[in-house]
Amino acid sequence: MSNVTIYLRRSVVDDDHPGAVSYDQQLNRCRELAKQHGSGEPDVLVDWGKSGGEGLEHRRSAYQQLKDGMAAGAIRWVVSYDLSRLSRSTKETLELVDHARKHGARVHVGDLGILDPDDPTGKFTLTTLSSANTLLREMASKRAREHVLERQAAGLPIGRPPYGSRPGESVSTVLDAYRETGSYHAAARKLNAAGIKTRAGAEWYGKTVQNVVQRAEPPALTSRRRVRSRGRYILTGMPVCPCGRSMMVVNTAWGVKLLCGGGKIDASHPRPIEVAESKVLPWVMAEAARLRVPESVEVEVSADEAKRVALDARRQRVVDTFVDGLIDKMGRDRRLAAIDMELASLDTKAAVLMVPKLDWTWSPEAVNGVLRALWRSIQLGPDMLPVSADWWVPEWRA
Ligand SMILES: [Zn+2]
């Protein structure tokens, strides 16, 4: 087996540009280049263009094989016809070269030479020419067309390459700031304080952080239902103003406070419109102390199981009675609905077991997580002091 692998990518082929470099031309040129790095017959990996209707995975599978081969140490040299055949973006080029370096492999591109990031010349070539390549591709209509089609096929936005694809841009730094602070605005402040700039060399704002975070991690971090951001403070997401609006929990020079946004824009809103967290907390702690979860896991589960078995048996009896003609269809459905409701309530009780014990020495974020597992909201009265908590499961309150 050879240590040299030729990677070919076929461009979009249609009647509009028959002059594309043919597969054979690419392969012959690559074989010549490969001879410089090994005497054996090189392996050839091919990704096909959109022609032929192949799906995305098929089209990209050779590229994945290429990366896997490097990771496994089976590939020492990658040979490609030109930069645009090697990868589809500056980001991808840089990632591939980085991947190669990690695994002791090197990349030789026909129109650029050896992309060696450890060599000053190679590094210069890599960063400068790969950027220039992106520009050229977008200027040359034939290639721009290819670029657009490929990005569309990959579900990627068309236009500027995303943040993180240029030297000096670090998506992970932005993500870390978001994870540590729990909000886009706080992450922006942290990045600005650290002297980190946006691509345009400007200050970060919540929105620019959000763009980067959502592109990098769409599902896990940002699309939790009902929860706009993680709770930074103990009461985040819960207090409700007498006017019916959800209240903001914000940090100020005088400490954390609860604030009705409606009061700020509506002059007729009753006063006061805010209250210090410290004035609300004693009530919150007393209310949370009323939590009564089942004594032991085994008892609760077995009790539920016994009841579930009994309900299932009742369900069967109702069906039998209907079959025997002793009740009509409406009577059957009514009885079954009642049993189903009881079965559903069993599931709710099983959830009790997942509620963790509350420890007020935890971080505000952790306490907030537990409180929100207990309560939907906390209603405040006209004096801005708590009146009641809306328990998800009222039976939990002793
Ligand atoms: Zn209000």
How would you characterize this protein structure?
The protein is of the alpha/beta class and 398 residues long. The protein has 15 helices and eleven strands. It has helices at 23-35, 56-71, 83-86, 90-102, 120-139, 141-153, 171-181, 184-193, 206-216, 218-222, 261-265, 277-288, 297-323, 329-352, 364-374, and strands at residues 4-9, 43-47, 77-80, 106-109, 113-115, 239-240, 248-252, 255-259, 274-276, 375-380, 386-391. The strands form three sheets. It has a five-stranded mixed sheet, sandwiched between helices. A three-stranded mixed sheet has the order 6-10-11. Strand 7 (248-252) and strand 8 (255-259) form a beta hairpin. Helix 5 (120-139) packs across helix 6 and helix 8 (184-193) crosses helix 9. It is flat, with a radius of gyration of 31 Å. Bound molecules: zinc ion (ZN). The site of zinc ion has 7 residues, from helix 11.
